[in-house]
Design a protein that fits this description.
mainly beta; 4-stranded antiparallel beta sheet
Amino acid sequence: MHLPLRRAAGAALSAGTALLATASLILGSAVVAAPASAADPKVIGAVGQPLGIASGPDGTLYVSDYNWGGGVNVYKPGETVPSRTITTGHFPTSLAVTPDGTLYVAQSNGAQPEIGVVAPGADEVSLVMKVPAGTRWLAVGPEGSLYVVNSDQNSVSVVKPGDAWVQRIIQAGPYPVKVALAKDGTAYATNQLAGTVTVVPAGAPWPSHTIDVGARAEPHGIAAAPDGTVYVANILTNDVAVIEPGRTTVERRIPVGTAPQEVLAAADGTVYVTNSLDDTVSVIPAGAATAAHTIATGDDPARMVQRSDGSVVVVNRKGRSLTVLDGGPATGAAPTTGGGEPAAAADGGASDGAGSDGAGSEGAGSDGAVIAQGSFDVAVPAVAAGAGALFLGGAVLLVVVLRRRRKVSGADGAEVWALD
């Protein structure tokens, strides 16, 4: 039953410009409705096509505009419209912020994928690292290292703070999509096609073991809570697998909504899960065995981040909006950028965590000067940023396939997307 879905997802893993038409269907526009009451989540319109999201240590919000012209829109605390736009390469996707405010952007330059580096406070990418073809997802570790998930290469690259080249490349499973960093520096990568999680001890050059979460589960989003508990969103089984600290098997599964895609573990341990087909977020209290309640969002919720004030911001891709949820107290900086791209964070966990020290003195300075060179798999120097190709994750296409199946079956009669 799931084989056609897995084949469809696999076909999308190295997708390029041929998926432009699909992208326009996946990421269509919608009218942003005002909240029904003051108690409802706050929904604000986004500029362009929102996709990636990250939060800086001061609560500044960064949202990538997934378009040819690119750009990252910047929302200062309290703003409902962006005050400025950072110039990037084409089709920026994943974002990550270090504790010192350095922003990393997965972008492209024609057919060449890149990781753009934006110095704190800068308005443009001043340094890029060229990477091999394929999809990239970014995260920042507790000590400020950049983790780059190389889905098509089945690996995770690690760039030390301030460097512009890879320190180590860690082998993962078939098609890793997201990585979460625990407070102790342990990395957890979800291998979507294998149904597993690769575990890499802090600083290790290779994994210590692999945890099975379900061959047909299609695990995607992952988060490490402040206490070390790991949560994995399984798209096809509509649940979240829970891995207790130090354990090598799934301890329990928490039912959530339909097609859960991304996970965020907030600073107080509360877990948030975006349910792509339900247009909701499931909220799981720290240590709970069930979701306490469900919150409505905009159309097609995906990546999330917690800001320094404790609020959680959700990207609604098809709705082209952001939903702001009241969260618990944030101890230290915001813990994560949704869907696996971490922001600077005190807890270092959640689908994205970062730590207490930022990029080192060897990185791009405030003047944007290039002071380091390198590449991911070959000796290519860092160069000025340019344009790029189209990247769509397997989960996005998988959700579209699920929506098309639901439309054909007439399960709820709602208008959903199709691939053609």
